[in-house]
Amino acid sequence: MSQAATKRRIVLLGPPGAGKGTQAATLIDALSIPHISTGDMLRAAVKAGTPIGLKAKAVMEAGELVSDAIVIGIAEERLSADDAKRGFLLDGFPRTIAQAEALEGLLRKLGVALDCCLALTVDNEAVVTRLLKRAEIEGRADDNEETIRERMREYDAKTAPLLDFYRSRGKLIEVSGMGTIEEVGERIRQALG
Ligand code: AMP
Predict the structure, then answer these.
(1) 85 tagged catalytic
(2) Where are the domains of the chain?
(3) Ligand 1 midpoint to CA 95 (Å)
(4) What are phi and psi of 47, to 5 degrees?
(5) pLDDT tens digits, residue range 109-131?
(6) CATH architecture classification, 9-192
(7) Which residue stretches of the chain are H helix?
(8) Cα–Cα distance between 83 and 33 in angstroms, integer?
(9) What is the model's pTM?
(10) What tens digit of pLDDT does each residue of 4-54 get?
(11) CB 53 within 8 A of CB 42
(12) Is 78 a catalytic residue?
């Protein structure tokens, strides 16, 4: 795989529980690019009790989406940092068409373009089972079945339309997220190669 052909500006898309975080960890190592997760940044803000954290807390606990204005602001700030110049893996952003349009505008301003949107496709029911198991193991109180189902509904209603958004721009790469971590990782390597 030549350096020039390597994709380094990537949006990772997929429903909750598709294994985005797990695959992101491997990818950022392989590509030496920063992992930019708006979920991680929002959780840090909640923990630190910042004004953004205070606004986001209840929304996140209900499994709903935080407002576009808030997440666009934090994503823009992070993407403008020096270490994102060589590339980035966006995980959990964009999640709405408005966010995707804001990302396009920002990248245009920065003089770069997205290489691809890597979408992990999964069976929704299998993912709910996977998330419930994870909640049990990690003892995550916010990961009860109702919250999980709400996050799925939010994904279907607001985030799934991004598949067509990126497909129409010739940027969509779909990879099955079913199977073992290694199997999915191998599919991703082949798809990006
Ligand atoms: P995640 O870790 O990506 O699943 O994000 C956890 C929660 O943070 C989500 O359920 C949302 O409430 C919120 N969140 C993270 N990223 C976004 C985003 N791009 N737009 C809106 N809400 C977000």
Answers:
(1) no
(2) 9-192
(3) 8
(4) -65, -40
(5) 999 999 999 999 999 888 888 88
(6) 3-Layer(aba) Sandwich (3.40)
(7) 20-31, 38-48, 51-61, 68-79, 97-110, 124-138, 145-154, 161-167, 181-192
(8) 8
(9) 0.92
(10) 458 899 999 999 889 999 999 999 999 999 999 999 999 999 999 999 999
(11) yes
(12) no
